[in-house]
Design goal:
Structural class: mainly alpha
Strand order of the largest sheet: 1-2
Radius of gyration: 17 Å
Helix content: 55-70%
Oligomer: single chain
Distance between the termini: 14 Å
Order of helices and strands: HEEHHHHHHHHH
Largest sheet: 2 strands, antiparallel
Number of helices: 10
């Protein structure tokens, strides 16, 4: 309840931002959720099928990062505030760029498969090519931050990782609010990992499955990250479903 009012404002702003950007994360049709475009600011306007792009997801994650930086002083670590612009610039830029590899090599699923074992190396290689547009010093810092993000070995890296996963769930909740559901049964060949997390969540909805995965992925994350994330997802879920996520209980 500590962050409830703030998270209610963030959830409201996210819905506007998501709909203005015509966003639905690429791949939702695989779990039975239609991809949509919103033609206006009206959340109830006509929707049509469409693919999301990695850039749209990056934009939403970066927006969340900027909002969390503004509202939760310790989210990115003690003493990291809007005034510490060089550090903040690095984290926000990394949030904007970290999925750029998906635009080139496609989205490698985080499903424990053999292909996933090469995910970090391939994405880092593409990222190294991409950040050549920056100066050497900035590029070095970005590469260090990107590697930290992949390993989740620092407080700011965990914060970016948490926002990345949270954004996907918020998008699914926006879909649910529009009456469009991602159902695991619609996928032809669900992974064993998805099936196991569906059992853990006691649900076949994609939002619940992704949420259940966050239980293990957020293990060891500090409360400065976990608490506002949980509160934001609680607020969003109550607004959409009138109840908490199964994984939040």
């Amino acid at each position: 309840m500590e962050y409830q009012y703030t998270c209610e404002r963030i959830w409201k702003g996210y819905q506007i931002y998501a709909n203005c950007a015509s966003v639905i994360r690429k791949g939702f049709e695989l779990v039975g959720a239609a991809n949509i475009t919103n033609d206006s600011l009206d959340l109830n306007s006509t929707f049509m099928r469409r693919s999301d792009s990695a850039l749209e997801h990056q934009a939403k994650t970066t927006w969340l990062a900027s909002v969390f930086l503004s509202n939760f002083p310790d989210f990115f670590g003690k003493g990291i505030t809007c005034e510490t612009s060089p550090e903040v610039w690095t984290y926000i830029t990394t949030a904007l760029c970290h999925d750029v590899g998906e635009s080139i090599i496609g989205d490698i699923p985080d499903d424990g498969s053999l292909l996933h074992d090469t995910k970090d190396a391939v994405e880092l290689e593409v990222f190294q090519e991409f950040v050549c547009a920056y100066s050497f010093f900035d590029r070095r810092e970005l590469l260090r931050t990107f590697s930290s993000f992949q390993e989740r070995d620092s407080h700011p890296a965990r914060a970016l990782y948490a926002l990345d996963k949270t954004e996907a769930i918020l998008t699914l909740l926006v879909l649910e609010k529009c009456g469009i559901y991602g159902n695991l049964e619609a996928r032809e060949n669900p992974t064993k990992r998805d099936l196991s997390f569906a059992k853990m969540a006691d649900s076949k909805l994609a939002a619940d499955i992704w949420g259940a995965q966050m239980i293990t992925r957020f293990e060891g994350f500090p409360p400065e990250i976990i608490h506002p994330i949980y509160e934001l997802l609680t607020v969003a879920s109550y607004d959409v479903r009138g109840e908490k996520f199964t994984w939040l209980e």
